[in-house]
User: Fold this.
Amino acid sequence: MQELLKLSGIYKSFEGVRALKGVNITINKGEIHGLVGENGSGKSTLIKIISGFIQPDSGKIFFDGKEVSRLAAGETTSWGVQVIYQDLSLFPNLTVAENIAYNEMLEKRTAFTDWKEIERIARNAMAKIKIDIDLHRLTEELPIGTQQLVAICRALTSDIRLLILDEPTASLTKKDINNLLSVMKDLQSKGIAILFVSHKLNEIFDVAENITILRDGMSVGTFPSKSLTNDSLVELMTGKALNQTRMARQTNSSKVILEVRHFSKKNNFKDISFSLKAGEILGIIGLIGSGRTELACAIYGIAPPDSGELFIHGRPVKIRNVRDAVKEGIAYVPENRLVEGLIQKQSVMDNLNAAIIKSLSHGGYVPYQRRLDHASQWIDRLNIKVAHPLVAVQTLSGGNQQKVVLGKCLSTKPSVLILDSPTVGIDIMAKASIHEMIRNLAAQGIAVILISDEIPEITHNCDRILLMHAGKIRAELDASTIQASDLERMMAQY
Amino acid sequence: MLKKLFRQNETYLFLLIILLSILIGTRNPLFFTFENIAGFLKSYSMIGIMSVGTLFVLILGGTDVSFTAIAQVVEYAVVVLVMKFGGNIFIAFLEAAIIGTALGLLNGLIIYRFKVPIIIVTIATFNIYFGMLYVITKGKLINNIPQIFKDFGNILLFPQTSAIGGTYGLSLMPLIWLAALILGWFILKKTMMGRSIFAVGGNEIAAERIGINTFATKLFVFGFVGFLAGIAGVVHVAIVQSVVPNIIVGKELEVIAAVVIGGASIFGGRGTIFGTFLGVLLFAMLNNGLTLLRISSYWYSVTIGAIIIIAIIASAYQRLQRAKANIKVQIQD
Ligand SMILES: Nc1ncnc2c1ncn2[C@@H]1O[C@H](COP(=O)(O)OP(=O)(O)OP(=O)(O)O)[C@@H](O)[C@H]1O
Ligand SMILES: [Mg+2]
Assistant:
């Protein structure tokens, strides 16, 4: 096979953080190449180097057999390299059509806009992956899954030879993921090479021919995916063997902490009732658009329901806003945490402390050492990869940013914790440690609602499962008896 | 269609303007006369021209406060230049455009080079530009301005004779304002430069990543702000027909407020020319209406403040409605 892009001996440091220390990767023409590694192992940094957005400190880059001394932003685009970043890099204030067509219009170097042309480009791109989004909607009004599709469409507008996808499936529904994977294969059959980053290893095995593994900024190697198994890949990524079994759990408490009765909200969900005991982990499984996130927002007071009652410790309460919810001891980690949960420019320490700064203070004054200790404690517990607690959150890898949000939320010691897709984009080891932490929290008596569309995550951790679809609860299941395959079958019905 | 209309800021502003004009007009019928309307449009031309530049900066994601200082410097400089070297009104406009653009570009260079927030840089350059003007001119007034400015300011379209014997009509100044609006609209809507201003304001990192030249975009915006401030300076001297070196400065907050009321977001990425026009028009009418109703002009500031608060509440309310109207889940029974 012919080499399309080859990088060898790539080094890159950021203000003392050595993100890449000797990475080699070769991408062949027309292949799907998987790139895996734990959070902070350097995947996104490598991609930014390929796209020319940042420059390596040293190393050689060959494109199409020729050595290129320096990749400048935009230059790689003209060779047909397109990147979809982890944060999507969309313009929230522009329409779907414009977001999709922008690259192409820029490429044409015209001075004037041609709105008909913009729509045409956008339509063509959407047709390539067989989707249909209202072209005139503002991108910010779309759910995150749809935004992802917009970003993919944008990459498909030009003639591409290499498409780079940094965790494209993290926030997609299973249906959309399958669609995307088949689009990837389709693109491959047209001779386009794809570099694909994902923490969901089964997806990588599904489509990739070769897999490059990064660990701690170094490449462990590139292997044909046929020569690897799930376990051997995890071991190469982490240096450790992972055993993932269902945790035998017992909730012996019978104290109901939270009870929801007949919650309804127009265009969101209808007639939802359930109760939650202390120390229980209640799973809500459902796809994007099932109303799961909307339900969480209602309980947390972000968008209160139109009707229904809520009881906490048997006492009827009215939650009209987030403050009410916090007062009742409810905490919520949102789904789209990258944008909602963090102050990007502030330090990891400040972000971790943000929710509990009052309890750390000594009559209005918060000693530095205390803030540092508290933050360091959470950095350790969640294994957040950061050079120092004072580093700005925005320099952390995507997965590590998520851990910061989680830490901030958990530090409030809530009595009801709602986690919306808490491990999206989190690597396999960290995921296991987050799962363990959730179970530990439950063991301490916290009632947990775990929302996810990932079946193993739900069956491994929960005591009870509510299956949501199209705004209603369709089934209530006992997690100790249900098999993952049964649950999958039930979900497939809808 | 109707729904879309109700989601737009401009719709509410437009209704407010209609309401206000009825209110003023029924109290004092003079309000609706050609003479009066032409008058307040003329006196708000300078603010109107500058508002277009402010809109651009807001869309880019910042607030420029130095443009009034630029207009002030340009006004003084151009009058002095014409007094020294002569020339017609076109030369005066050309000089104004060049000096204004240069000062604006300087803002842009500093902002890009040192990555300092726009407001900080422009507070500094405001003081530098204005301070230098005072140092050099020692605050001297120029009462006897060259005839070309007076002639230009006195041109009247559709001249009419008033009851007491004077003439009135439509001055050219509102037409320059209109031209600035059209130019701004054209750039924002029809050029790639305009779209990249929106893009940078929406997500600067993404803009850089897809290869938008953010440096050029910023330079363009600040150059354009300077250009408009320069034009506004000449328009001002043509209207007031004297040069007082501290009369334009201080108007920047009014301009910014008008643009924000017109729906431009202080967080960047959002704003329209039509909204900006309506914002300035509202202020012009208010000011005029208060005079006609013989209400103290201090009420003007109070009213402006109140309107800004109402505008903010209204836009928050709209956003809420929008979120509610969003169908998130298709409920199946
Ligand atoms: N601009 C920056 N300044 C400082 N450190 C940085 C910067 N960008 C990345 N890093 C660091 O480089 C390391 C690699 O980050 P990178 O984003 O490449 O990880 P990743 O493999 O993509 O992880 P994830 O799976 O969580 O997205 C991290 O430790 C990160 O904190
Ligand atoms: Mg990453």
The radius of gyration of chain B is 21 Å. The pocket of adenosine-5'-triphosphate (ligand 1) is lined by residues A 14-15, 17, 19, 37, 39-45, 86, 385, 395-400, 427 (CB under 6 Å).
